[in-house]
């Protein structure tokens, strides 16, 4: 999970062959953004994701939490809905202007992978690799606090 400036908010480490879609809710549940006062914020206003995350379960989860889903509908899901006619329901809402900001996730991955050890996965244990991810994320956040001249 990445915030709008391209800084990481949460990681969930999975095996390389595993699909990302089942981890969607786990990643969103890890978000904790502290504010100036009170408990940390855990619900973003909108979530932009690619077509791989387009599923009924993910959309229902976002609706339950009152989060705007900016996820394009898969072509096969769209065709299935249209084949059902009026019983297929309404098309999913989609904001193309908000979706353009999804590339911040890809840019964040690029910044993380500037560390060669993370890009080539030199660490064999998941714990040490995840520690490297958190260290890199902390450095990225610290760079936003220091003024550049």
Structure notes:
With 149 residues, this protein is mostly helical. It has one domain (21-145). Helices cover 42% and strands 4% of the residues. It has 7 helices and 2 strands, in the order H-E-H-E-H-H-H-H-H. It has helices at residues 24-29, 56-64, 75-83, 96-99, 103-112, 116-120, 126-145; strands at 46-48, 68-70. The protein has a two-stranded parallel sheet. Helix 2 (56-64) links the parallel strand 1 and strand 2 (68-70). It starts with 23 loop residues before the first helix and ends with a helix.
**Distance between termini?**
29 Å
CA radius of gyration: 18 Å
Number of strands: 2
Structural class, judged by helices and strands? Answer: mainly alpha
Order of helices and strands: HEHEHHHHH
- Total domain modules: 1
The proportion of residues forming helix, as a percent range, comes to 40-55%
Lateral arrangement of strands in the main beta sheet: 1-2
**Approximately what portion of the residues adopt beta-strand conformation?**
under 5%
Largest sheet: 2 strands, parallel
Annotation field: number of helices: 7
Shape: globular
Write down the overall mean pLDDT.
86
| Unreliable residue runs | none
Quick structural summary:
The protein is mainly alpha-helical and 149 residues long. The protein has one domain. It has helices at residues 24-29, 56-64, 75-83, 96-99, 103-112, 116-120, 126-145; strands at 46-48, 68-70.
Provide keyphrases for this structure:
149 residues, mainly alpha, two-stranded parallel ribbon, 7 helices, 4% strand
